Amino acid sequence: MLTATLAFQEALHQVIAHAQEKLPVTLHERLARAAALVEAGEVFMDEDGVHAQVRSSDGATWYTPNASCQCKDFQYQAPEGWCAHRLAVALYRRATELMSQSAVAPTDMSPSTFRSPPCPPTRLRASWRLSVAIL
Ligand SMILES: [Zn+2]
Question: How far is the CA of 42 from the centre of ligand 1 (A)?
Fold first, then answer.
């Protein structure tokens, strides 16, 4: 559905912007690649809603970046194991969560909404840290 897609992309952009603030600069290039993977629709959640698969940018290799990832970057270089695939799944999860949160939130477009957002930034930061800790 078109509306769902737009909402997801909006949520995704928020999550990406937030991740850029929170994650160290060493992860920003991977974050950009992760964002590209999510936007290209290469992240697939399993039916259990817990595990995910990511198709690499060459379109031929599949990764299951859950507790660990099969790529060389994860094994040899990625800071704290955050390869682009694991970041892609984290972004996807957070965007989905954000989307379901905003779906139940009232859509109040009055000026006061912009002065005090329904989700305080501190809470968002805390939940981002939490999801990073879980993964
Ligand atoms: Zn990986």
Answer: 13
Nearest residue to 14 (alpha-carbon basis) of 35, 28, 45:
35
CA nearest neighbour of 93 among 36, 32, 134:
134
CA of 70 to the centre of ligand 1 (A): 6
Residue range 46-95, pLDDT digits in tens? 888 889 999 987 889 999 998 899 999 999 999 999 999 999 999 999 99
| pTM of the predicted protein model | 0.72
Ligand 1 centre to CA of 129 (Å) is 20
Question: What is the CA angle 77-86-95, rounded to 5?
Answer: 140
The residues spanned by each domain of the chain are 8-101+109-114
Reported as half-sphere exposure (CB side, CA atoms, 13 A), residue 65 has a value of: 31
Cα 9 to ligand 1 centroid, rounded to whole Å = 22
Q: How far is the CA of 120 from the centre of ligand 1 (A)?
A: 32
